[in-house]
Specification:
- With 192 residues, the protein is of the alpha/beta class.
- The chain is 40% helix and 16% strand.
- It contains seven helices and six strands, in the order βαβααβαβαβαβα.
- α6 (149-156) links the parallel β5 and β6 (168-170).
- The two termini are 16 Å apart.
Length: 192
């Protein structure tokens, strides 16, 4: 199994500047659930790393977040896939915690819980902070244009982080998943 780390809002489900606060508001992006199932069937262990400051801001409760994640897991399961773990930061930016992306605390929690290093694994996000968190742990960042992706793409030219200058950009998770599987298949055959 190969670890793969996905952001949630804007990658798997539609994002909102007003926060995604309930299962009704949690709506998958077209093709994202099928993409996760495809990746899972291809041998990837999928972990979700998501900032959820709406919890710390009191916009929704832990039970609401749990229900959204149960909905996501159920949809992926119905499509024949599996999510190995969902890791979230409940803090606001003012909390200065170690887990809020662009810090690497969520990825470190994934490594510890799943017993696998994130170094060299793909991480898919729609914001620069998703990608920066991955880079801190030696991940290969991929940007999707869904969610905040288009805005992030426009900001990349200004980023001082050289590794973000030439990163692969995809329309959505469905397109990124095909690339990831193809790269994985090529690497596997080269190692045989």
């Amino acid at each position: 199994m190969t670890l793969l780390i996905l952001d949630r809002d804007g990658v798997i489900n539609k994002d909102s500047d007003n926060f995604v606060k309930s299962t009704d508001e949690w709506q998958p992006i077209a093709g994202s659930i099928e993409a996760i199932a495809r990746l899972s069937k291809a041998g990837f262990r999928i972990a979700i790393a998501t900032n959820q400051s709406g919890l710390g801001r009191g916009l929704f409760q832990q039970a609401d977040l749990d229900a959204m994640h149960e909905k996501m897991r159920a949809l992926v399961s119905a499509a024949g896939g599996e999510i190995a773990g969902i890791f979230f930061c409940p803090h606001t930016p003012d909390d200065h915690c170690a887990c809020r992306k662009p810090k690497a605390g969520l990825i470190e929690a994934i490594e510890q819980a799943l017993g696998e290093s994130a170094k060299g694994c793909y991480t898919v996000g729609d914001s620069i902070r998703d990608l920066e968190a991955g880079l801190l742990k030696g991940c290969i960042p991929l940007l999707v244009k869904t969610g905040k992706g288009e805005r992030s793409l426009a900001k990349l030219a200004e980023s001082p982080v050289q590794a973000l200058k030439n990163l692969a950009v995809f329309n959505d998770l469905a397109e990124a998943s095909l690339f990831i599987i193809q790269q994985h298949t090529t690497e596997s055959s080269n190692n045989d």
